[in-house]
Structures are given as structure tokens and as C-alpha cells.
Design brief:
- It is a single chain.
- 12% of the residues lie in helices and 43% in strands.
- By secondary structure, the protein is mostly beta strands.
- Strand 19 and strand 20 form a beta hairpin.
């Protein structure tokens, strides 16, 4: 009997010890649910979610899944409304919207109410901060955005209060940056000051770039620098050719920026450096390639491009992604180089994309992959999947990659437009 009691005490003690350990040791805590990393599109034109290892965590059951916004993943349901999923693929809140804006910014997202179809803005908890009341609403920048109401555009702050009442016709709001507005009226360009709610009288023929309170504009045969203080400064005569990229007002440091242009009939590219504080021309240099970088005194920065371009059949540079990416072609196959031209992934693929958020797409024959910077296969794209894309991949890509989109070209914007038009058409037919 005593032996039996001792055995019971040992068992009870062991259970208590285990329970105590599980309340204090992380290993006994619940395993975290895997987070979504990729969106896949199957042969039935439905979308689902994969984790970072390519495992399916949400089946293909949505008409569309958009890019992640502040931990929220918009999903377009078969009922043709938008809901939001968290990073594990679970519905965040029992709320749906008729439509949503593509970008979540400054803590707000523009949404169209499911019932009224009027637009307002919600916070990250999907609560309305600006009640639905507009025909459309834009993305917030510096605390403001445009709204469309009764055929005219206006500008509101983050509380929904008007800064400029609706008064601008379609396409009159040309551009905005840090309090400076560019307007087009009756074929002429004018400058607006958001803070002081002013639109200046000075008119220009065209504008080439805007950065902060500095704008590069053209009038007649001249190019000027102006600002929201309406201080016009002559920069240069218009070249007989084409203007290219306009550098931001402090893009080279020391308040200096640059203008690229190419004269008609010439192959060389000119870069002219100006002082943005007074418009003084600092220097002018001829470059061979868009990839050539200069400093504030027109000195060419060292570039490895020409050291290795001649070695390969073709070299492609990343222009739009969030990180540096250079791919090269050798013996008909593609691989990747680092910033110094060293091979980091051998040329063994039939086609590749640029790197973005640490991954790229690659194809070998009919097999398609998502690879990382070390060339490791992160996900092998199944034959029954049309494509797989990274949840944060925001580039609107209109190119047609056989290995990515299976022979048809649809950007994210195209897909959204397709469903919007199809839904509106069905709504019209229902009303009839």
C-alpha cells in the first residue's frame, strides 16, 4: 500500500512539474501559425496564400488577393466584395467593402462602403475615420488627398475637412509633392500652395519635375525653376531634342540637382547640374549611358558596368525594384551578378526576373521557381499554378513572362480593372 501511494505521489509530482514547465518554458507554448509570404493563382483563376516555404495556408478560393498593407491582406471574395485577412490568412473583422484603394498610407486606406458605394477612409482596425461620402478618394500624402465629388476634384485633410472645395475638372490636378501643387488649366500649368491655400497667377506651357517646393517648368523657349513661394528663376534654354529625368532638388547633395537631355540626332546624354537655391548652373557633362552617375561637380562616379558588359551576351539592370539586381546572359542562359560584377548565381536559367524583397523568378525548361539571393529554391511553382507572386511585390509589370503568367499578360492593375468592370456590368444587368 505504501509503495502504491509512493507511485501515485511520483506520478502527481511529475504531472505538476510538467505543467509548471509548460507555463514558464517557451518550448511548451503554442506554435505560432505560419505567415503568408506568397500569393498563388491557380488554373481556375482563383487565388490563395503560401507561407515562406511554399506551403499552402489559404486554399485558392478568392477571385483576387491584393498586396499586403500594414499587416492586412485584401481579398476579393466570390461575392465580389473586399475583406481583409491577417498575415496568417484569417479574416480580421466581419466587415466588407465594395472597393478599396491600392495603397494604404499614413494610417489610412480609402474604401468604398458596401451598401452606399460612397468612399471614405478607415484606419488599421478597419474603423471609419472619414465617413463614406465621396464619389472617390485618393491616397494620403503629407496629410492630404484628393476627393472626387459631383464631377469635380477637391482636396481634404485626414479629418475629411476640405482644404480646396471641389473645383478642379478632370486631369487638372497634375502633381503634388510636400505642399506644392501642379495644376493644368486651359492648357497652361500653374502652381498651388496647399498650406496657404493659394493658386498663383503665373502660367507655364509644361512642367518636367517636382521635388518639395521646387518645380522645373517650361515657358516659350526657356526652362525655369519655380516654387510655391512663386519665385521664378531662369535655368536654361530648351534643348533641340528631348528632356529626360529631372533630379530632385537635393539629389546630388549641397542643394544641387540635375537635368538630363539629349539633343536631336545625338546619342550622347547631357547632364546639367544646378544649384536649387538660386538656379546657378554649376556644370555640364556628357554621359554615355543612363546608368552613369555623377556627383555635384559633374564628375563621373566609378561604375563597374563597362568592365563586365562586354563579357556577356546581355546584361539587365534593375530599375524599379526595392533592391539592386543585375542579371546576365551567357551561352543562352541567365544568372546574377553582384554590384561589382562578380557571379553570385551561375547562368543556368532560361529566363529570370529582377530581385525584389530578396526573391526572383526563374525558369528552367517548363519548371518554374522562386529563388533567393543564394540561388536556393524557395518555392517551385506547380504546373497547375499560373503564377506565384510575393505579397509585398508592388511593381506594376506589363511585360509578358511565359514562365510567370503562362502566356498571357495581366498586371495587378489590369486584374483589378477587370473585376471592377465585370461587377459593374453585372450590377447594371441586375437593375434591368
Amino acid at each position: 500500500m505504501n509503495a502504491l501511494n509512493r507511485l501515485k505521489n511520483i506520478i502527481i509530482s511529475a504531472v505538476l512539474l510538467l505543467l509548471t514547465a509548460c507555463t514558464s518554458v517557451p518550448a511548451c507554448s503554442k506554435t505560432e501559425s505560419p505567415k503568408a509570404r506568397f500569393v498563388f493563382h491557380d488554373k481556375n483563376d482563383l487565388y490563395g496564400l503560401l507561407d515562406e516555404n511554399g506551403n499552402e495556408i489559404v486554399p485558392a478560393e478568392y477571385l483576387y488577393i491584393d498586396k499586403i498593407r500594414d499587416g492586412m491582406i485584401p481579398a476579393f471574395t466570390k461575392e465580389k466584395v473586399f475583406i481583409f485577412l491577417d498575415e496568417t490568412g484569417k479574416k480580421i473583422k466581419d466587415v466588407s467593402f465594395y472597393d478599396i484603394n491600392r495603397l494604404y498610407s499614413e494610417g489610412l486606406l480609402g474604401v468604398a462602403d458596401a451598401k452606399s458605394r460612397k468612399w471614405g477612409a478607415v484606419d488599421k482596425n478597419l474603423n471609419y475615420v472619414i465617413e463614406p461620402q465621396f464619389d472617390s478618394i485618393g491616397t494620403f500624402e503629407d496629410g492630404i488627398t484628393y476627393v472626387y465629388q459631383n464631377g469635380l476634384d477637391g482636396i481634404i485633410d485626414k479629418t475629411g475637412k476640405y482644404i480646396f472645395e471641389p473645383q478642379f475638372k478632370d486631369d487638372e490636378l497634375e502633381g503634388y509633392d510636400h505642399g506644392t501643387l501642379v495644376l493644368s488649366r486651359n492648357g497652361k500649368i500653374r502652381i498651388g500652395d496647399i498650406k496657404n491655400v493659394k493658386i498663383f497667377d503665373a502660367e507655364y506651357d509644361e512642367w518636367y519635375g517636382i521635388a518639395g517646393n521646387k518645380i522645373v517648368l517650361g515657358k516659350g523657349s526657356s526652362i525655369y525653376l519655380n516654387s510655391k513661394e512663386n519665385k521664378e528663376i531662369f535655368l536654361m534654354k530648351k534643348p533641340n531634342g528631348s528632356l529626360g529625368f529631372i533630379g530632385k532638388e537635393n539629389s546630388l547633395g549641397n542643394n544641387r540637382f540635375f537635368i538630363n537631355y539629349r539633343k536631336e540626332g545625338e546619342k550622347d546624354l547631357h547632364s546639367v547640374v544646378f544649384d536649387s537655391s538660386n538656379g546657378e548652373k554649376i556644370c555640364d557633362i556628357i554621359k554615355k549611358d543612363w546608368n552613369d552617375e555623377i556627383d555635384e561637380n559633374c564628375n563621373l562616379k566609378e561604375s563597374p558596368h563597362y568592365d563586365y558588359e562586354s563579357k556577356y551576351e546581355e546584361v539587365r539592370y534593375s530599375m524599379c525594384s526595392h533592391e539592386h539586381s543585375t542579371s546576365f546572359k551567357q551561352n543562352g542562359k541567365w544568372g546574377f551578378l553582384d554590384e561589382n560584377g562578380n557571379v553570385v548565381i551561375p547562368a543556368e536559367y532560361d529566363d529570370v526576373s529582377e530581385f525584389d524583397f530578396g526573391v526572383a523568378w526563374a525558369r528552367k525548361g517548363k519548371r518554374r521557381f522562386i529563388i533567393d539571393r543564394n540561388g536556393r529554391i524557395v518555392v517551385e511553382i506547380k504546373p497547375e499554378w499560373k503564377f506565384v507572386t510575393e505579397l509585398r511585390y508592388t511593381r506594376v509589370d506589363y511585360e509578358c513572362y511565359e514562365w510567370r503568367l503562362s502566356g498571357y499578360c495581366l498586371s495587378d492593375h489590369d486584374i483589378r480593372e477587370y473585376w471592377s468592370e465585370r461587377r459593374d456590368l453585372e450590377d447594371t444587368e441586375d437593375m434591368e
